[in-house]
Write a structure and sequence with these properties.
The chain has about 625 residues and is an alpha/beta fold. The protein is built from 27 helices and 11 strands. The strands form 2 sheets. Strands 1, 2, 3, 4, 5, 6 and 7 form a 7-stranded mixed sheet that branches. Strands 9-10-8-11 form a 4-stranded mixed sheet.
Length: about 625
Amino acid sequence: MNPFLRRATEYIRDTAAFLAITSPEPIRTFVAKHKRINDLFDLPVRVIGSPGTGKTMMATLVEFRLVEAILIDQSSQQNRALAAALTAAKFSDGDRPLVAAIRIPMESEYREFWELPYDPAVKTKLMLSLIQARAVLGLIRTLTANKQREIEDIQFVTRPEAEVQLTQIGGDNIVEVRERAREVETLVYNLGASLLPPELSDIPDEVQKPYQPFETIREIDITWNGDRIRLRPLVILDDVHSLHPDQYAALFRSLAKREIRIGRWVMMRMDALSPSAVFRSSDDEALPGLKHDRDFIDVVMEGAATRQGDRKQFRKMASDMANRYLQQVDTLTVRGHLTMQGLLGEVQAAFPPGKLKELETAVAREQRQLSISPARRMMLEDVVDTYAKGAKAFDMSTEMRLGMLRILMHRYANRVSTQTLQLFDDPEPTQPVKANGGVADGARVHLHHRYGRPLHFGMNDLCDASGENAELFLQLAGSLVSRMETKAIRNLEPTLSPTQQQDELKIKARSIIDNWSFPFARKVQRLVDELATQCVENALLPNSPLGEGANTIGILEQEIQPLLDSNDELALVLKFAIAYGAMAAVRDYGQGNKVWCLLELSGPVCIKYGLGFGRGNFLERKVSDLQALISEPKDA
C-alpha cells in the first residue's frame, strides 16, 4: 500500500517503522521554538491543531520508550536528527533522557462516564481516577518497554508534603503502586462499562477512596547505563476533544491545580474551542477563573509567527517527511529515486502551436481595441524583455512574454485613459508601466485559465497547497506518488511533468472538498465556492491589479470581533471552516491604515479554482456579505 495514504498512527506499534517515517521538524517547530518552552512541563498545556497537523505523531515520538530507543541507538543519521530535536525540546540532554512521557488516548469510554446518572463532580472524579491509574501503569510500562531495567529499578519520588496521599497510591513500593493502579483501573472501568450503573451508595469503597497520584508524584528515579537519574513525568492526553464540553472543562480545571508537579499536556482539535479561540482571540471566557499564559499554555500546531517563515519552515518539514515516506515505496527506490523533489518536474512543456497562435491573435486584437500604437507595443515588449533577463524564474517562454505584454497593455491603457488625446498621439503615462513578479504571476494565472497551462506543480507548490498541515500534504503527495508508481510499473520514467502534477492535484483537491463531512460542511463549501469564484473574477481582470489575484477575503477587525462574540451562525460556520482546514484566519493584519482579519482560502480550494498561493492580496468584504453567502437560497 502507498505509505503516503496511511495515517502515521498505523505505524505506532512498530518502533522501527514509526521512527523511519517520523520527521524531527514538528517538535522543533512547535515545542523547541515555543516562547514558553521552560514552562511546558510545569503548567497545563493545550496542544491545539486541525486534523492532520501531527498531534498524535508528536505525542508518540516523545513517549519514553521511543526517546530511550533513539538515545540508545544513534548509529543512523535519522536517529541522530531525532535525538537533536528531542534535546532542543528538552526531552533529553543529548545523552540522557530528562522526561518520562506517556500518551493516553482519550477513547470513547471516557465520554461514557458523562452519561452516568451521578453528579458532575462524581463523574469527574471517576474519570480522573481512571486516567491517573492508566497514567501510572503507562509510565511503568514505557519505562520497562525496552528491557533496559526491571520494575524494581523504578521509584516514584513524591512530594514531601504528600505523606497521606502516598498511602492512597500504594506507598513507596513500586510493585504495590502498580497493583493499586491496576485495582483502581479495573474497578472504575467496570463501573463505567456496566449496563446498569449501581446506585451511588453501592459503588465499591475502593473506588470512593481518594486516589491522586498526579498530586503525589514529583519525579521518577530510574537506572540509566548503570547510574541513577531522575526524570520529570509527563502525561499526554490525546484527543480530549472527544469528551463532552463540560467534561473537558472539568478535566482541565483539575489538571490546572497548583499542587500537581508532573507535566500534563492535552492534545485537541480546534473545533473543541469557541469561535473566538479558533480565531486566536483569548479563550479565557471558555474557562472562567483560568487565565491564558498564567494558568495554562497553548501550543498551536498551525502557522503562528511570520507567515513567510511558517511557509519556509513547513517546506523543510514536508520535504523531510516526503523523503522518509518515499523510502518505503519500493517501486521507486529500486529505480534510484530517493527524493520527492527529484520526481516533480518543473520544466513546462512547449506551448502548443495552435494555442500560441490563438494567444498572439488575442493580443493583437486587444492592442487594436486599446488603441496602442506599434511603437508603444515595442516599448512594452522591451520592458518585458528587460524583466525576463533579470528574472530568477526559468519559464519566461514566448507565451509568458505575450501574457505579460497583454497585462502591461491594459495597465498602460488605464493610466492614459484620463488624458485628452489628439489624433496619432502616443501619450506617456504619468506613472511608468513596469514588469515585475506580480505581472509574471498574473500572466501565469491567465494562461492557466484561458489555455490550460499548468499553474500548480513542483515541491514548493505541493508544500504551499498543504497550508502547514502534514496530513493534507501526505494526501496530496500520495496522489502524485500513486501516479509515479503506475508509470514505474509500466516501465516508464516515473517523474511527473507539470501537466501531470496539475491534473492529479486537481482531481485530489476536488475529492477532498467533496468529502468534507464536518459540522456545517455544506455551508462551508458554499461559502468557499462563492468566495473562490469572486477571487477568480479578480484574478482574470485583464490588467491583473493584484498580480496573480486574491485568494483571501479581508474583513475589518472592528466587524469580526463582535461576530465572534455573538451567536450568529456565521461565527460557527467560520469556526469549522478554519478548524477543518477549509480556510485560515490571520488576525490584526495592518494595511491601508486599517486593521483586518484575513480569511485565506485553503490549498485544495485554490487548486480547484486555479488560484495562486501567494499571500497578502485580498478582497475587501463585510460580515453581511458572508452572511448573505451562507443563507439558504430562496425558492424561485
